[in-house]
Every structure is written in structure tokens, then in C-alpha cells.
Amino acid sequence: MAKRLEGKIAVIIGAGQTPGETIGNGRAMSVLFAREGAKVMLVDRSFEAAEETRAQIEKEGGEAVSFKADATHIEDCEKVVEKCMALFGRMDVFVYNIGTGDASNSLGMPPKRWDTVFDINLKGLYYMYRFVIPVMKEQGGGALINTSSIAAISSTPMLAYRASKAGMNALTQSVAVNYARHGIRANAIMPGLMNTPMAIDGISKATGVDKNELIKQREGRVPLKGGMGSAWDVAYAALFLASDEAKFISGVLLPVDGAQSARVG
Ligand SMILES: NC(=O)c1ccc[n+]([C@@H]2O[C@H](COP(=O)([O-])OP(=O)(O)OC[C@H]3O[C@@H](n4cnc5c(N)ncnc54)[C@H](O)[C@@H]3O)[C@@H](O)[C@H]2O)c1
């Protein structure tokens, strides 16, 4: 049976991960895409983190290259696309996975931090699209996937995080409509409470809440039996959206959240 991404070139921004015990969304997507036959360009501002992902892919017999770039720098974004074209001559799938939160949870957060949240979560995406979309237009199509969050549609106290992810959702849908005639599909995944290093190790470190206690609290907030999801749940959703199985799906904001965002009251 053919692999689901056989012959495709995929670029993943944020393909490394925050150190921790579990696997992160970007790494899980990268590994899964390679298992399904894609050649994956692993982009991360931490070259070491991208290289760890590459090692995992190559151990399984997959193909990947690492590339160091910071998506908040427009020159780096241009270089990502130039490198991909030089290596592979095309780009079928582009995933913007990076994101950062505002742990201070209030308007009192330092304005610099607000800017950082927006730079990483939204401006970098705009920068990348300036170079990615012309390539996809020229080749007659492509699949764009963004890692958003159900925070975008919830009443989270993380004000900058929510606003930036809501902006990402809006940009996803605008691009889906405005470039549809060029065969470009754009979709976003909205993960809910996931057991990833960024969420568990990151939030535990930022808030001082014990890791096991944090896991227990988060498990209890997910309606679906089994508690939190894992990065593999996000990766399988991304795999579907990246594949030709989703060729008529564009402009979708897909929750991967165990029914959390469907619960009202
Ligand atoms: N884990 C959750 O519970 C959860 C829930 C909802 C949404 N999300 C979203 O998932 C995404 C992150 O998932 P992950 O598990 O892969 O995170 P992660 O933090 O483990 O990995 C992200 C990678 O991105 C890299 N990175 C950060 N800023 C960068 C930049 N400016 N340029 C290039 N690389 C950069 C980091 O070095 C890291 O290797 C984010 O968009 C986040 O908002 C996560």
C-alpha cells in the first residue's frame, strides 16, 4: 500500500522540541510525515533540537534535513524557502508549528512579552507566507497547516496567546479563500490539553506547580475518557490535512481536544 505522503516535500517550522519526557507536536509530525514517505525539512531556531528529530527519523529509515532559522526574522524565512527549493525544487506541505504563551495572564504583562508572543505566533507566519505562497502558486498548489490552539476560541486568561492564535485562525481562513484558485489549501489544528513537554515541563517550570499535580489537573478537565491527548493525536490530524485524502478540505479550524471546546456550561 502506498504511503500517505509518498514523494512529498514537507517543511516543518518548530520541528525540534522543548526538552522533556514526552514527545512534542512538531517532532511527532516530523517523524510521522517521514514514516509516511515525505522528505522533511526540519526547521528550528535550535539546530540541536532539529538534529535530535532528524536522528530519530533516520533511525527509522526516513529522510530529513535540519535547518537553523528563526521565523521571527524575515531574512531567515526567505532562506528556509530558498534552501528547500535548492534541495528539492518544490514544497508540497508547509507546517507552522511554533507558538509561545503569556504565563502572566493579564494586561499587566510587559509590552515586550506581548510583542514576543505576537512575533512568534503570528508575525512569523506572515513572514513565512510571503515566501512560501509564491512557490506554491508557481507549482500549482500545496498544503498549509498551522498549529493553533483551542485557546483561540476559549475564554482563557492568556490574553496575548488567545488573541495571537485567533489571528492565526483568521489568517489561515483568509489565505484559504484568497489562494484557493491556485490549489493552495490552508487549515489549522487547534490542540486542546496535550501531554507534551512544552505544556507539562514548560508550565510546571513557569508556574512552580508540581508536574504530577499539573498532569492530574489537566487530565480532569478533558471530557473524553483517557484525559489529555498526546502529540501523536495532533500529528495524525496534520498527516490527514497534509495528504491528498484532504484535497477538498481547506479553511478548516480543527479542534483536537477530546471534546473540550464542544462543552458549553
Ligand atoms: N502542548 C499543548 O498543550 C498545546 C496546546 C495547544 C496548542 N499548542 C501549540 O503547539 C505548538 C508547539 O508544539 P510543540 O509541542 O512542538 O512545542 P515545542 O516547544 O516542544 O517545540 C517547538 C519548537 O519550536 C522551536 N521554536 C520556537 N520558536 C521558534 C522560532 N521563532 N523560530 C524557529 N523555531 C522556533 C523551539 O526551539 C522548539 O524546538 C505551539 O504552536 C503551541 O501553541 C500546544
Q: How is the main sheet built?
A: 7 strands, parallel
CATH-scheme architecture: 3-Layer(aba) Sandwich
User: What fraction of residues sit in β-strands?
Assistant: 5-15%
Briefly note the CATH topology name. Answer: Rossmann fold
What ranges have pLDDT less than 50 throughout 5 or more consecutive residues?
Answer: none
Binned, the helix content reads: 40-55%
- Total count of strands: 7
CATH superfamily: NAD(P)-binding Rossmann-like Domain
Strand order of the largest sheet: 3-2-1-4-5-6-7
Mean pLDDT: 96
What is the CATH C level class, in words?
A: Alpha Beta
* Count of structural domains: 1
Alpha carbon gap, first and last residue: 45 Å
* Annotation field: number of helices: 8
The oligomeric state is single chain
The dominant shape is: globular
Cα-based radius of gyration, to the nearest Å: 17 Å
Bound molecules: nicotinamide-adenine-dinucleotide
Helix/strand class: alpha/beta
Order of helices and strands: EHEHEHEHEHEHHHE
